[in-house]
Each structure stands twice: as structure tokens, then as C-alpha cells.
Specification:
By secondary structure, this protein is mostly helical. It contains seven helices and three strands; from the N terminus they run H-E-E-E-H-H-H-H-H-H. The protein has a three-stranded antiparallel β-sheet. The termini are far apart.
């Protein structure tokens, strides 16, 4: 009598090494690689947000390196389809172009962070993160506009991108 692969594991008491959903079985728990990738993304965005608040800029070289790593993780680990990833990069590219057009009024670090978010998510999630970040930044921007009459004060946008990413990832998980 022949047994299938699933039957062999059931009879031997061993669990298969890979599970659907990008998880890897480790003794009694499943290690979800996708969760780790998103956790690293959020941790990086938090670190860059703190740097943006303190210094008014971020390390572009390190962010570009994370964008490259995010592309590899998105394609090969998170299995983001290449056409979807290319579309998801468009908001970051448009923000980088706006940064150059408006004389760096919008930081290049914000554009690079949006590119990083786009490499690990699809176009829908990236656009939702961007719109959420814009909505979250409206209240502080309105407050600064009312308080500062000359309008010379700026607010860092990266913390709002980070918050938008966390909100979207929580919505995606639930």
C-alpha cells in the first residue's frame, strides 16, 4: 500500500519543514518569515523616524541599502509579483521627483522610505500607507500653520509614514 507524503509525516510523527504561508516549522512552533521581514521594516522605519525628528534628515546611503535588500526580500521571500512591485515603487519615485521639483521641501529620505515600503508591499498597501501618512500629518501641519504666521516651520514626514505602515500592517494581519 502506497502512502502519500502527508501520511508519511503523520505516521512518523515528523512535521514537514515548510508550511504554506511562508512559515518554517521549528519543533513546536511555526516561524513566519514574512512577520520577521515586516518587523525589520517597522524597526528600521522607527529608527529612521527618530533620526528624522532629531536631525531633520536621514542617512540616504543606509536607506538606499535597505531599499535594495527590501527588493530582494519582497521578490524572493514575501513573493511580491514583479509587476506589482514596480507599480508599488511609483509613489516613492513621484515623491523623489517632487522633492527635486520643489527644492527639497520634501525630503529625499521620505521618498526612499516610501520606496522601501513599496518593495515589501503591493501597490494597494503602499498607496494606503501614503494616504494614511498624509491624513495623520494634516493635524500637526494645520496646527503649525495656525501657530506659525510665516510658514517657515517644517515637520518630519517619516514618522507619519512609519505610523501609516504600522496601521496598514495591523489591518493586513487582522
Amino acid at each position: 500500500m502506497k502512502t502519500s507524503g502527508a501520511d508519511k509525516h503523520a505516521w512518523s510523527g515528523k512535521r514537514p519543514k515548510e508550511h504554506p504561508g511562508r512559515g518554517i516549522a521549528c519543533k513546536h512552533m511555526e516561524f513566519n518569515v514574512g512577520f520577521v521581514c515586516y518587523a525589520v521594516l517597522v524597526l528600521f522605519l522607527i529608527i529612521m523616524s527618530v533620526q528624522d525628528i532629531r536631525c531633520g534628515s536621514v542617512n540616504a546611503v543606509m536607506t538606499a541599502a535597505f531599499v535594495s535588500a527590501g527588493m530582494l526580500l519582497g521578490l524572493f521571500v514575501l513573493k511580491v509579483p514583479l509587476p506589482d512591485m514596480c507599480l508599488a515603487l511609483c509613489p516613492g519615485i513621484c515623491l523623489a521627483a517632487a522633492s527635486r521639483i520643489f527644492g527639497n521641501a520634501i525630503g529625499l529620505g521620505d521618498a526612499l522610505a516610501l520606496l522601501l515600503i513599496g518593495t515589501m508591499n503591493g501597490i494597494a498597501e503602499t498607496f494606503t500607507v501614503f494616504c494614511t501618512a498624509l491624513a495623520l500629518s494634516l493635524i500637526p501641519a494645520a496646527f503649525l500653520y495656525i501657530k506659525e504666521k510665516n510658514g517657515k516651520r517644517t515637520i518630519p514626514f517619516l514618522p507619519f509614514l512609519c505610523a501609516g505602515t504600522i496601521i496598514v500592517l495591523i489591518g493586513k494581519a487582522g
